Amino acid sequence: MSDKMLNQFSRTELLYGKDAMEKLSKSRVAIFGIGGVGGYTAEALARSGVGAIDLIDDDRICLTNINRQIFATRKTVGKFKVDVAKERLTDINPDIKIETYKTFYSPETSSEFDFTIYDYIVDAIDSVTGKIELVVKAEECNTPIISSMGAGNKKDPSRFEVDDIYNTSVCPLARVMRYELRKRKIKKLKVVYSKEKPITPIDDMSISCRTNCICPPGTARKCTQRRQVPGSTAFVPSVAGLIIAGEIINDLTNNI
Q: Whole-model pTM?
């Protein structure tokens, strides 16, 4: 990174300094889940100068993703999220190294990933079993991880907090995670969670994916298989994703 000319990260360097930017350019972050939360995390990390990002998600973009997912537009409906994300992130930074995996992360697929190569891991997936497996693998490899708790069925982005999983309250997903991680003797986990009580979505099957699923052809897990399709907004999951990105950037540059 030159000392003598402007680049797309110059404004960030004014805050963090050259050494921090060099550290970010050499860092590799894995983001599991490129939806409402993980998509904004990926975008912010690319715009912050992170040099390598792995994107893991087997889902395709659906019309109903447009209300909250940064990579979802009318033109990208039906395309794999990781493919659309890679194209956009390389437009932001042509030098970034992007690896994509069309993989649904679970205990059965965890062996496909070497967690020792990452400087940070983002858990932005919905499956509880997948989230637990991510935390366990990160713990085994001593790789930093930050986990997103529930962002659906909420309307107040100001209620998000960053804390250890064992200090959380209100969030139903965090309660389940506390229980499961305690059983596995996991002593800590940085999370982003909301203290807003989840809202029960309107029971209107005329606008519900439960009975009117429009997932693109080839989608492995359709909305008709869900117990409940959560309501969502443009401004809640995005805030969670940006908070996560900020935590990662600050943690990676903290000792510079």
A: 0.92
